[in-house]
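Dear colleague,

Thank you for sharing your sequence with our group. We've completed the structure prediction you requested, and as agreed, I am returning the results in plain text so they can be pasted directly into your records. Please verify that the sequence below matches your submission; if there's any discrepancy, let me know and we will rerun it promptly.
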Amino acid sequence: MHERTHRKPSPPKTTPAPARAGRPTREQARARQEALLECALSHFLEKGFEAATIEAIAANVNMTKRTVYARYADKTALFRAAIRRSTERLAATPEVIAATRADNLEETLVNIAKLRIALVSTPEGTKLQRLINTESYRFPDIFQTYYDIAALPTVQFLVGILEGETAAMRLAIDDPLLAANVFMSMVVSGPVRFILSGNELSPEDIDRRVRFAVRLFLNGAKLR
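Please find the predicted structure tokens below.
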């Protein structure tokens, strides 16, 4: 009599679970954030705050409106963030600002003024400044944001120079911070307004205007 052999049943076949999409890395999330702000800025620069829409911005970066709103409460918050990011990107580094120091005071002041003018004169700098000028009546804080990030570090550097010159009895300045801001208005603002109005200034014209204004400033600040 033959014994019947029993075969072990085969284990049931299982279908592997679909791979779950992993969460984006920190670098990927940062890149997405940068892309969103870059796209938002382009829309605001091209269309202005009123005409730009979250829907169009989200579509351009392959995001949903929900994703954008998860990062920014509304269009105003996105606008402010885009302005800040662009300002940070355009602002001169401490090393670039420090490199304006020359062998004499007049050349140092000329270099400082030209640095500020050059930052506004770039295509992106001009567009950003025009946007801020246009929308600052609606959002006064964006003007302060621009000043704090793009202008104040240079103003503070100039304050240190004016304090040193006053201490050395080469200038007579009672309020170095006020004097530094007056310098920016007197020497920088004129050429900048000319450029923002759509007119071109050659490097020779900028140099002539800046040097003339710097000499006026120094004549007013010299020790008597």
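Summary note from our side: The longest helix spans residues 140-167.

Kind regards,
the structure core
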